[in-house]
């Protein structure tokens, strides 16, 4: 879970709740917006390519569509910065070359 430096995210009870559910907490450093750049860009894409494109009848429908979008984003959506490959294929090639 990535969050901003909000005070509520620093509470021990909140951190324990995350830990109890196997969720690793990630916070950006105070005053460093570049820490958020990658995830903010991703959330912007999700909103513009999925959320704002249609109305959902239920949370279950949204979850199903989000899971499908994440599969598309990682496995089928080509990116020029990644030499025309989807992110998962690019990562695999990079790991095999290392």
General description of the model:
With 98 residues, the chain is mainly alpha-helical. 51% of the residues lie in helices and 4% in strands. The chain has a two-stranded parallel ribbon with strand order 1-2.
What tags apply to this protein structure?
4 helices; 51% helix; single chain; mainly alpha; 98 residues
Classify the helix fraction into a percent range: 40-55%
Largest sheet: 2 strands, parallel
Give the integer mean of the pLDDT values. Answer: 85
Please provide the ordered H/E string of secondary-structure elements. Answer: EHEHHH
Which strand order spans the largest sheet, edge to edge or round the barrel?
Answer: 1-2
Number of helices: 4
Distance between the first and last residues' Cα:
28 Å
Structural class: mainly alpha
From the spread of the alpha carbons, the general shape counts as: globular
- What is the total tally of β strands? 2
> Uncertain spans, ≥5 residues at pLDDT below 50?
none
What's the Cα radius of gyration? 17 Å
Q: Quote the beta fraction.
A: under 5%
Quick recap:
The protein has 98 residues and is mainly alpha-helical. Helices cover 51% and strands 4% of the residues. The chain is globular.
Topology:
Layout: E1 2-3, H1 12-20, E2 26-27, H2 37-49, H3 59-75, H4 87-97
Parallel strand pairs: 1-2
């Amino acid at each position: 879970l990535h969050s901003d430096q909000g005070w509520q995210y620093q509470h021990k009870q909140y951190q324990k709740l995350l830990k109890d559910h196997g969720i690793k907490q990630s916070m950006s450093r105070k005053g460093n917006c570049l820490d958020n750049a990658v995830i903010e860009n991703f959330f912007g894409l999700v909103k513009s390519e999925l959320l704002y494109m249609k109305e959902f009848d239920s949370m279950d429908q949204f979850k199903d569509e989000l899971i499908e979008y994440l599969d598309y984003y990682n496995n089928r959506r080509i990116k020029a910065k990644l030499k025309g490959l989807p992110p998962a294929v690019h990562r695999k090639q990079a790991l095999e070359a290392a």
